[in-house]
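Archive maintenance. Older records in this collection stored only the sequence; we are now back-filling the structure field for every entry so that each record is complete. The fields below show one back-filled record exactly as it appears after the update. Entries are processed alphabetically, and Phosphatidate cytidylyltransferase is next in the queue.

ARCHIVE ENTRY
Title: Phosphatidate cytidylyltransferase
Organism field: Pseudorhodobacter turbinis
Length field: 269
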Amino acid sequence: MSATENRWGDLRARLISAVVMVLVAAIGIWLGGTVFTVLVAALTGLMLWELGSMTRLAKAPPHDRSALAVAGLGVLCLAFAWASPWMIGAIVLLIPALAFALTPRRDRGLAAVWAAGAMIAGFGLVTLRNDAGMSAIVWIVLVVVISDVMGYFAGRILGGPKFWPAISPKKTWSGTVAGWIGAALVGGVFWASDMAPFGIVLLSALVSFAGQMGDIAESWIKRRTGVKDSSDLIPGHGGFLDRFDAMTGAVVLVMLLSLVMHLPFPVGG
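Back-filled structure field:
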């Protein structure tokens, strides 16, 4: 296989999987309500299961029941948090992280941080859909997707110096910066359409960076646990943690910023 074929060898599988995920996500975002909530809860549970499987002890069986247990716990905690006052819900969201921290596994601290991030992101997606509307979800999804797509193609076409080779050997500076530009362009479209103030442009680039940090953080835990992908559930993309690591970082940043300032979310929907 030539270098060019190897470079683009996974593109077909990635595109097919991406189309399916986009269709499912679009239906969930459009319908909102129970459908979107169930979709996000299932996604969060799958991410926790993958995280638990990745960090299981070497002597543990491949299908470790503790990973399935913590995934189920995460879904229950999300349901409770959505139905509870804010402060109580915030505490409940951290229970799966505590479970990772207190059970025997590799990199318990790192796994606990990731579990907390996944729970906050899951809670945040539904909260944003309910409180800020469909346009806010469409915006953050577009920022993450366009940032990833532009980074993917720019990194493979332009190449160049690596962004953080010790943790993510494939990520380049050209792809990273292209992701920021793509995200800013998404924000620019919302601003030009009078759907959001100009601040959405800067926020989009910042959210893109947070998504890239989520990607790098997931690459770090994979390198430390010695796995290539979080699972093989999504052809061409690995697992759900591989595919939604950037979304996790992006939503966590949005939720944290929303605690201290008013964000220029798009309106409508």
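Update note: The chain has two domains: 32-131, 132-269. Residues 132-269 form one domain.
Entry marked complete.
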